[in-house]
Amino acid sequence: MAQQPAATPASTAEVVLTDQMVELDPITVVATRTQQSWIDTLAAVSVVRPEQIEMLMPMRTQDLFEGMPGVTAIQNGNSPQTAINIRGLQDFGRVAVFVDGARQNFTQLGHGDGAGTFFVEPGLIADVDVVRGPVSNIYGSGAIGGVVTMRTKDADDIMRPNETWGVEADGEFAGNGPMGYGSLLGAARVGQNVDLFVGGTYRNQDDYKDGDGNEVAYTGYETWTGIAKATIRPADFHELKFEVMNYESQFTTGSSASSTATQYATDVTNTTATASWNYSNPDDNLFDWRSSVYWNRVDEDQVKVVGSSSLITGDVGDPRSFVIDTVGFDANNTSRFALGAVENAITYGGDYFHDDVDNTDDYGFGEGYNPSGERGVGGAFVQWKANYSTWLEAIAALRYDAYSLSSADGGTSGDRLSPKFTLGITPVAWLTVYGTYAEGYRAPSVTEALVAGPHPAVFSGGLTPFSFVPNPNLEAEIGKNKEVGVNIKQDNLFVTGDRLRIKANYYQNDVENYIELVTYGSPACIYSVRGYCVAYNDYSLAQYQNVDEARLRGFEFEGTYDAGKWFLGLSGQTMTGEVTAGPDEGQPLSTVQPDQITTTLGFRFWEGKLTVAARWTAVAAVTASDLPTNSVYDATDSFNLVSLYAGYQPNENTLVRFSVENLLDEQYTQYQNFLPSAGLTVKAGLTVRFGGGEVAQAEPALITK
C-alpha cells in the first residue's frame, strides 16, 4: 500500500520517534544531489509523497501540484499534456521536467500553448519533488525556473520487505464526465537480489460539465499505460535498474473554445526507456555513485476533424505529426571527508541530452511553427557542501554548460560557467536561516532560434500575415537568483508527538537575455476587396529576440502542523514580473501567475484508520493591468475551490477513498487556459493489495536499500 516508504533516494525518509507515533520527514536529493531531509534543505523545495497523492486522488497531472507554492501546472481541459510554470517561468525548458530520470522536452507550438509539455499517467506517480529557482543548476541544463522530478511506482511500493510477491489493484470513478480509472500492478522478488515490476493502467474520461452546468466539448480522452522494471543487485551495494514505459492517449484538441474552431483528433505515444547503475556503501566515503542513460520519444499524430479550410490548418482530413527523440545521460559521484570539525561532501559529475525534432505538416503551417532540427546540450559541475557542528552549512557549486543547435536553415552554439553559493545558519535547534545566490543557463530551443518562413495569408480583416525570421545569433538566457529563506522544525511543541514544519522564502530572479517573440516592421495593405485586405507588403516580421532583462520577485510559504489526531496545512504565493530593460521596459510578463493561498484541515479517527480533510484554495484575479500589451492570454476572475476527502483503511491491504472536488460548483477558468474547468465532481476509489512469500534472511552487506 502507499503507506510503505519507497526505497529510492528521492522517497526515503528521516524517522522522528515520539511517544505516540513514528513520523517521517521526506528525504530529497533534487536540490543538491545529496540526501537531505526536505525541511533541512537550504532551498525552496516541495515534495509530494504517497499519502498526499492518496488525498489528491489525481484525475489529471495538474492535480499532483495542487497547493504547491510558486508552482502552477497548466493543463487545458481538452488535452492531457501538461506544462509547468515555476515562479512565472515556463516553456522551452525553463523548467526541467524528469520522469524516472528521463528528461521531457516535447514542444508543439501553435495558436495555443505547447512550448514545453509532457505526458504522464498521474495514477502511476509515487513521488514528486520540485525545487524552485535556478538553485539546482547542478541537476541539469536550462532550469532557470526550477526542476521537477517524478518517480513512478516500483516493486517496493507493492511488496513489503519480507514478501516475495505482491499485487496492487486500484479503481476510481468520478461522476462529472463520467471518468473511470483502473490499474493492475505486480511485483516479485527472485532470490535476494532481483526485483521485478510490471503493470498497466487505463483511464477514460467523457466530456465534463463546468460550474454553470454546461458540457465542455472535447474534454474527453482515453489513456493507456504499460510499464515494466527490473532491479538487479549483482554485488554488495551495487544496483542496476532497467525500465520501459509506454503511454498512449487519444483526445480531440484545438486552440479555442469556440464550437467552430479548428479541432484535431490526436493520438499521442510517449515511450521511455532508462537504465541506471547506482553504488552506495555507508562505509565507503570515496564513492557514492549515481548514473543513468535514457531515451524518450514523443510522437503526436493529428488529423483535422473540425474547421473551415485554411492555409494555416489545411482541410478536414489533413494529417500532421510532431515527433521528438531525446537521448541523454547523467552521472555523478559524491566523496565525503572530515577536516577537523567540518564534514565535507564533494559532488561532481556531468549530464548531456540530444533532441532530434522531426515535424511534418504538408497541408498547413504546423511545421512552420515547429521547425525540425537537432540540439545538443550538456554540462559538468562540481559542488562542495560543508557542515560545521550543527549550526553552519555552506554550499558552493560551479557548473559549465555548452550547447549546439542546427538545422537546414542554420544553427547556433554557446557555453558558460554558472556559480552557486548558499550559506545557512541554525542559531537554535528549531530555526535555520539561509541565503543563496545562484545562476542558471538556458540554451535557446530549435523553435526559438530557427523558426522561419511566411505565415499563410488570411483573406479577411483583423489578421495581418507576417514572416518568421530565424535568429541564429539568439543568445542563451541567464537567470541570476537571489533568495533568503527560513526553515522551522519543531517537535513536541504543544502536545507530545506533534510536529511543526515551515518553509518560507523571498526571491528575486533577474533573467538576462530573456527571449520573447517580437513583431516589427510596418505592414501596409496594397490590395483590398469590399474593405477587406487581401494582400499586404512584406514588412511585417516576427522573430524570437533577446529583450535584455526581465525581473521576477515573490514570496512563498509552506507549512504543516500535525498533532496526530488532527493536522493543518497552509501554503501560498505572491509574485510579480516585468521586463526591466530594452524597448518593452516596464511591461509585465504574461506568464506570471496570480496570487493564491491553500489551507488544508484534517482529522484522523479510529486509531488512524479513518482520515477526513477539507481543502480551500483561493486564487486572485488577473486583470488587464496585469498583462502586457497585446497579450495572448485573457484576464481571469478570482475563484475559490473547496474540496473534501475521506479515506478509510480497515487493514493494511485495503484503502477506500472518497472526495468531492469543487464543492461550491464554482465557474472558473485557470489563467492561461481558454476552457472552463470542471464543476462539482464526486470521486470514489478502492485500492486492494495482495502479497505473500517470505524472503530468506540476507546478509547485512546485501541490504542496499
TrEMBL record:
Domain TonB-dependent receptor plug: 40-147
Domain annotation TonB-dependent receptor-like beta-barrel: ranges: 202-663
Annotated membrane topology: Multi-pass membrane protein
GO cellular component, one term: cell outer membrane
PROSITE patterns for the chain: TONB_DEPENDENT_REC_3
Record key words, sorted: Cell outer membrane, Membrane, Receptor, Signal, TonB box, Transmembrane, Transmembrane beta strand, Transport
Highest taxon of source: Bacteria
GO biological process assignments: siderophore transmembrane transport
Organism: Ancylobacter mangrovi
Pfam families (alphabetical): Plug, TonB_dep_Rec_b-barrel
UniProt protein name: TonB-dependent hemoglobin/transferrin/lactoferrin family receptor
PANTHER family: HEME_HEMOPEXIN UTILIZATION PROTEIN C, TONB-DEPENDENT OUTER MEMBRANE RECEPTOR
Family statement: Belongs to the TonB-dependent receptor family.
Subcellular location(s) of the protein: Cell outer membrane
GO molecular function, one term: heme transmembrane transporter activity
NCBIfam families: TonB-hemin, TonB-hemlactrns
Protein's UniProt keywords contain Transport: yes
Organism taxonomic ancestry: Bacteria, Pseudomonadati, Pseudomonadota, Alphaproteobacteria, Hyphomicrobiales
